[in-house]
Every structure is written in structure tokens, then in C-alpha cells.
Predict the structure.
Amino acid sequence: MSAVVGFDLDRTLVYSAAALLLDGPDESAPSLVVTEVYQHTPLSFMTRAAETALAALAERATVVPVTTRTVAQYRRIRLPLPAAGWAVTTNGAVLLHDGRPDDAWTASLRAEIDATSAPLEAAEELMLAELPAAALLRNHRAEELFAYAVVDRAALPEHTVTDLAAALLAIGWTVSLQGRKLYAVPVAIRKERALAAVAERVGSTMTVAAGDSLLDRDMLAAADVAIRPAHGELHAAGWTAPNLLVTGAVGVMAGQEIIELAARAVDDDSR
Ligand SMILES: [Mg+2]
């Protein structure tokens, strides 16, 4: 198989109830499958048609989930992919093969992070100081590599995100706001680098990538064919590129369309 297909997960392949963006009467809603259970409750979904299309695509390309989720958060996701496949978590800081992290990959990144970004404590402190108390619901660390806050979007002025992004960039950190989560990530931790490492290891000659957020942008720009949904951070910014396809649908139906567009790109390439 010569093509690698990197899919962001949240709001690209899988959707929480709040992100489904279904319209029309309930009786014509698509069949959904549960892709994640959290604390015994269904948390994310894809359409049944998307699940079928993804399984078919995985038979003719190397499908790689590429997510900002931590390894533990990723392990809750159920996709119809080979158990012995590849996945990228923690925004590119962890490379999983056969379910096992490639420790050499993470170690080499850590050295680079130390050289190019201020320590996690400094970035976290700056983020917490900049966020209005009313907007900050919870804050977390992802595997001691980066920080994220769960925020109340209604209480978060737009200029706060812009100001925070500028302040953090000055110390080597990138900011991304996705749904209720505000991420601060060292500039060296990038999804496209991990996806390129997978492409190299499997000997692929063509890369398709899909994603919805600022943390996906460079992965989309680096791909031969890029796909984004008509929702999310990149859509709100009107981001475009010569290699980019944008879905007609939004929400979970865009997730299905993304898989169909990726499958078409893989088939066109192998013709
Ligand atoms: Mg996403």
C-alpha cells in the first residue's frame, strides 16, 4: 500500500453530541455508531456509513489517526482499523505502532522541545494568568508535554486568545482553541512530523491528511491532498491552500464526507 492517510480525530472523524450539527427532522437523521465511551456513557460518534467507508479505506491505504489526545484518551476511541496499525497521539509527540509507543521518537522530541520552547510551567502560568477566572473551568497537562484548559467560550473574550497566542509564541508555544479546549503546545510538537515519520517507515509515496483545527494546519499544508470540514477553527479563519478540499457538509456528516474524499484521492493516485 503506497498511500498514507492521516486523520485528525475530534471534529474530523469523531463527534461529540454537541458537535454533530445535525439538521432536518430527527426521523431522517443518519444511523450513528458510538466511537467512544467515557465513564460508562457514550461520548463520541460517527455515522454508520462513515465507519463502513473507513474500514474499506483501511484495506487499501495506511490509515493513521493523528490526534492531540493523550495516549489514554486515544485508547478510548474505537475505529475499524487494523490492531497492528499506526497512530499519532499527543499532537505528534507519541508514535504508536501495534499499540506501543516509540520511546526513541518521544525522547528525541523532548530534547528539541527543551531547546526551542520555555518550560511547561512557564507556559501554563502565562495561560492561567491571561484567562479570566470566569472563563477557566479546569486546567490539565497532557503527558507533561503540554497544557490545556477547559474554558467557557461565552466568558472568553476573543482578544484574550489572540493576546495569549502572541505571548506564548514569543516563548516557543502555539495556541489552539477547539470547542471547549484551549491548548498550549510547544512549537516542536507537530502532527505533520509524526505523520511524515509513519510515511517513511511504511514506504509510502502519497499522503492524504484531514483536520479541522489550527494544530492540523501544517499537516494539511504538507500533504499531497488535504481535506478539512466546513466547520471548526480553520473554517472560521477561512484557511485555504492549493491542495485543499473542503466538505460541503458540516458536523458528523462532514466526517463521513472526509472519508469519502480521502478514499477518492487514494483511488485516483493508484490508477
Ligand atoms: Mg480536531
